[in-house]
Amino acid sequence: MKSFDKLFYDGKWQTTNSTEYSEVINSATEEPFAKVVKATHEDVDCAVASAKSAFTKWNERDPKERAEYIQKILTGIEERRTEIEETIIQELGVSRQFVSKGQVDLSINEIKATLEEFEDFSFEEELDNATIIKEGFGVVACVTPWNFPLNQIQRKITPALLAGNTVVVNPASNTPLTAILYAEIIEAAGLPKGVFNLITGSGSDTGDYLTKHPDVSVVSFTGSTSVGKGLYENAATTVKKIVLELGGKSPMIYLKGGDLQMAVEAAASTVLDNQGQTCSALSRLLVPKDDLEETKHIIKKYYQDIVIGDPTQKETRVGPMVSKDQMERVLNYIQKGTEEGAQVLVGGHRLPDKGYFVEPTVFVNVDNQMTIAQEEIFGPVLVVITYDSVEEAIQIANDTIYGLSGAVVGPQEEAIAVAKKIRTGNVTVNGGDRSAKAPFGGYKQSGIGRENGLFGLEDYLEVKAIFK
Ligand code: NAP
Ligand code: MG
User: Could you count the other beta carbons within 10 Å of the beta carbon of residue 308?
Assistant: First the structure.
């Protein structure tokens, strides 16, 4: 078994006194294949101190030079993309079909888009007799989930570093290997020591200690709403700035006169790709009552051809869940759905073979008050809810604690009008492409702040007014 026993801070890979490790599991085979050291609190102190001492110089650098370093990191990602893809397949269980476009290209495009926007960004402007200056906060603690092991880190460190901050990253325990590879790429890009630091270790210990650290100025977290709430509370102690990208329960609304097949396939894709472990997944499909039969027919036909199994095989669409815990969580929700009176249209079981596989599952006869319509399942589960009027569809769509994403398929003008009434940070109309420069983030309990492009950058900038 491969062993990773070093942490990256102060510009190099450092040894630790820790003797504790966490195992990385291949969830298609249930075999552990690597172990990664868990940082001690002293290690966290060292990483934060290193980021703190690097801050002033990095913050005062010409922003163009900071952009050149990000460009070097981007080149490194492009050069080592095959290795990154293989690592993500192995530690996340995502299918080869999805990893390239859905994970690595996503990061490359988002970094490119941010760099492009950054070219014309001004850190200083005049307002009456004031000079308004924008600059970094200091040390940013980044705590990231496992579902997009490269992109969740990139979305934080690209804007944080461009803005002039230094960072300490604590990646998810399920997927630390992509983060380690990323750190190697950053090391090769030759960033000044202390600007980027990586410490592995569990969130409840390492991440908790890091995000409470008095020398951390910003906590940037992506993960579950429950952990996010705890971090928000902790941040109050030293009035840290907080950026939260949390869960979702996003609706796809099909309107009469639109392309029903497109609506079904677009929603289904978001719960099939990445095994539905995507925060913006369109996991609630809303259709007019009298289109239900046609909807069921389309779903059955579409799901017939979905290949589930070994994620390394190119015909596989759906791989295993990231972990045993995640599989059990999804299976519990499926059971709860049945108990509460929803009806399984397709799927509903664990695969009998080895590996943490859950069949792609679709529920009908779902009421929006049911647990499977209210709580984020984070798995290959779609629920179909019917409505009588467009007003009711909007009301159902918004009847959730979340507000991350959404979609509407229907006659274009009407669909845009409905999109405006959905209380979420993103809405896709008739399958519109998403620009990597546009903001991503949630209303309500889906988060605070936005990622991507200049919107993402702003979250990592302090603002000062100098009156002359
Ligand atoms: P999670 O349990 O909240 O974990 C996310 C990260 O937080 C992991 O690195 C975890 O470490 C760490 N963590 C756990 N407890 C912590 C604590 N007390 N203090 C500091 N850090 C702590 O979520 P998950 O199960 O990994 O990811 C699934 C959830 O993330 C879903 O709800 C999903 O919607 C959400 N998500 C949201 C977005 C978005 O952009 N809005 C994107 C992706 C995922 P360990 O790995 O060591 O437990
Ligand atoms: Mg795994």
Answer: 21
What is the pLDDT averaged over residues 314-339? 98
Instruction: For residue 228, give the ligand 1 atom closest to its CA.
Output: 3
CB neighbours (10 Å) of residue 291?
A: 17
DSSP class of residue 290 equals: G
- pLDDT average, residue stretch 227-244: 97
Residue 138, SS3 per DSSP: coil
pLDDT per position as a tens digit, 340-384: 999 999 999 999 989 999 999 999 999 999 999 999 999 999 999
Global confidence as pTM? 0.97
What CA–CA distances, in Å, run from 255 to 261, 275, 429?
12, 27, 11
Q: Which ligand is nearest to the CA of 443?
A: 1
Choose among 313, 320, 321, 262: nearest CA to 287.
262
How is residue 294 written in tokens? 């046609």
Here the tokens at position 448 are 């605070």
DSSP-derived secondary structure for 344-369: EEE--SB-SSSS--B--EEEES--TT
In the reported structure, the alpha carbon of residue 139 is separated from the centroid of ligand 1 by a whole-number distance in angstroms of 20
Q: How wide is the angle at C-alpha 75 spanned by C-alphas 73 and 80, nearest 5°?
A: 95
DSSP string, 15-28: --S---EEEEEETT
What distance in angstroms lies between residue 404's CA and the mean position of ligand 2's atoms? Answer: 26
Eight-class DSSP state of 146: S
> What single letter denotes the amino acid at residue 288?
P
- For atom 9 of ligand 1, the residue with the nearest CA is 172
pLDDT attached to residue 353: 85
CA of 228 to the centre of ligand 1 (A): 8
